[in-house]
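Students often ask why we bother encoding 3D structure as a string. The short answer is that it lets us treat folding as translation between two languages. Here is a chain of 379 residues written in the first language.
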Amino acid sequence: MENQQRNMSTWQLTSILISSMIGVGILTIPRSSTTDLHQMGWLGPITGGMIAAIAITSIVYLSKQFPGITYVDYIPKVFGHRVGTVLSYPIILLFISFQFINAGMAARGFGEVVVTSVLQDTPLEAILITLFIMVLFLCCHEVEVVARVNELLIPIILVPVFLIPLASFMNADWYNLLPIHIDSWKEVGKTSLHTFSVYTGYELLMFYFAFAMPGAKLGVAGGTGLGYTIVAYFLTVVAGISVFGHEELQRLIWPTLELVKTTQQTGWFLERLESAFLAIWVASVFTTIGNMYYALIFSLRLWFRQGIRFQRICALVITVPLYYFALMPQNIVELFSYTKKMTKFGYFPTIVFPILLALIQWIRVKIGSRRENSKKGGT
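And here it is in the second language, the structure alphabet:
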């Protein structure tokens, strides 16, 4: 059944996409990109973004084929009504599970950064509880509230993501980017798959595109959002390599945060620029986790064909295991280990399934059009 809440504009969808992709990953991408590619690490965000582009193109195609409905409703239609319902269960469950894991690890990463950098005497549990209360409040409303929150916060997120790397170029040593040479294309592929993880969040378009108003340009929203994110990550990695060098980046836990500290210049009106950056980054992480958790909860609502009351109860109940899941890693080393495992697990719901579904639907459309042509030819 077609969704009746189709009131999201192209800009709101773009805002949701950017907010969902830019989160905790921006603080670690200079290190993860240069682990294998060294001074050529700036290739990581580009090649990782190209993988995301293929998946986003598939999602745009599926959303145009099934306007007004989410992946929960169109997956059975792609596979066919007889076997589609059965096949859709594990796919939907995998998507929901990934959003749960991703939201939990992002929340834990957020807590670690805040506790170690700003609120050093505040317990991690207090930070997580505060974050989850805000996310829970967001999930108690209809989807247009999510769109408005993202639209409201996106200007705050957009400017600093570009400003910080550009400002840090004043301290850059451009020789750190040399030589421009690729030792192994295998390492490029490995880095691409690893760097791709910072773009996760775009798969939420399988959910949010269903609420696009008639006439909204889904391709423009997907292309603009991804293009901005690629440029933002690319500049951040280039700034990190040029300022610190790829060897030093491997010793930094949160290299982008250290990059912010190096941009401080005498005479600036802020004494501690990283505090202002983190204040803005909090808004970015809140929208990232909020968008993920809302998609998870609303998917369950659609799956069980329930209303807003079920959504609110579900959001409250699932927040409890999500909180304990976020506390599972005992330290920062375990957190990064969990994140690596999550990246491998995420290949299926974020790359394989969107492309596979789009391919099957494209074949079905081609076969259907040939049958129609043959019938017309026969008459």
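Translate back mentally: The chain has one domain: 10-364. Keep this in mind for the problem set.
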